[in-house]
Amino acid sequence: MKTYLVTGGAGFIGSNYIHYMFKKYKDIKIVNLDKLTYAGNPENLKEFENNENYVFIKEDICNAEAVNKIFQEYDIDRVVHFAAESHVDRSIKNPEIFVQTNVIGTTVLLNAARNAWEQEDGTYKEGKKFLHVSTDEVYGSLEEDGTFFYETTPYSPHSPYSASKASSDMLVKAYIDTYKFPANITNCSNNYGPYQFPEKLIPLIINNALNGKKIPVYGDGLNIRDWLYVEDHAKGIDMVQEKGRLGETYNIGGHNERRNIEIVKTILKLLYDVLPETDPRREHINENLIEYVEDRKGHDRRYAIAPDKIRKEVGWEPETDFETGIRKTIKWYLKNLDWMENITSGEYQNYYKEMYHL
């Protein structure tokens, strides 16, 4: 039985990855290490609380003593490293936290894995692998000229968030080169789907629209992002760990480029269509909710990933087109309004305090 250490597993992508892995495999153990900052919500994984193959540990990845202890106690085979501060606006206001978690925390994990896995002859125990989950934002911004980000694209981060992620990527690359460390890096495009914290664009649109609140749109709203359904991302990560060449970077993109304003208008229309005609919320779900606001500092114009390498070497490609994925996402949030209310009210934090006696 393989034992996976998943960092940040109570967050959006991490919790979806754990759901995917337990659905696919019956013979794995998952140790979920999460500090439970504002974006971590154990309620995302409530169904696994009594699963003997699931362990939750509330801890900071920057705590070297605690992280080393986990490797010793659980004989970790695979690390999937999601844990990161990830909201660009927050990074602009408080860069130091992003450097601490994303750079120092990654270093702690790399050292702990190396200490646990490296043998006297400098080789590593068979089957041990470390996967570092990163972002397309490390590449900077693209022009609207049909070009794409490739694994060979030079890094050019434009926010404290993307700079901290670029730094963590470089550390992983350095460990691969210096210590022949068994690792891979994946850089993904914008994820969407269930369990996403409502400060991010798509759940923010849904929540604000349902409550008749203004939907802020940065600048002219014409910034372009490539959207990837989160379950497709989880599958890609698993396939890289199983089939990817050690030491390689793989870009995971959705081939779903959309302008921000297009995303807003699409969701408003779909929400209006999905709600019953008798639902009073339909009255205020229209484009009058859109409010253009001052553009974000250092706002990248366009992201677009070419997943050619992962398709060729690993056999992965996105399975969910945006029209299908966004309908599934909207329906999930409508069925889980209590989850959304617990997040926006802060009640979810009381849940994990009671559950884990914090």
Helices and strands, with pairings:
Layout: E1 2-7, H1 12-24, E2 28-34, E3 54-58, H2 64-74, E4 78-81, H3 88-93, H4 95-117, E5 129-135, H5 160-179, E6 183-188, E7 190-192, H6 201-210, E8 215-218, E9 224-229, H7 230-243, E10 249-252, E11 257-259, H8 260-274, E12 290-293, H9 308-313, H10 322-335, H11 337-345, H12 347-355
Parallel strand pairs: 1-2, 1-4, 2-3, 4-5, 5-6, 6-10, 7-9, 8-12
Antiparallel strand pairs: 9-11
Q: Could you describe the 3D structure shown?
A:
This protein has one domain: Rossmann fold. Helices cover 42% and strands 16% of the residues. The chain contains twelve helices and twelve strands. The chain has helices at residues 12-24, 64-74, 88-93, 95-117, 160-179, 201-210, 230-243, 260-274, 308-313, 322-335, 337-345, 347-355; strands spanning 2-7, 28-34, 54-58, 78-81, 129-135, 183-188, 190-192, 215-218, 224-229, 249-252, 257-259, 290-293. The strands form three sheets. A seven-stranded parallel sheet has the order 3-2-1-4-5-6-10, with helices on both faces. The longest helix is centred in the first third of the chain and has 23 residues, at 95-117. The mean pLDDT is 92. Keywords: Lyase, NAD. Its cofactor is NAD(+).
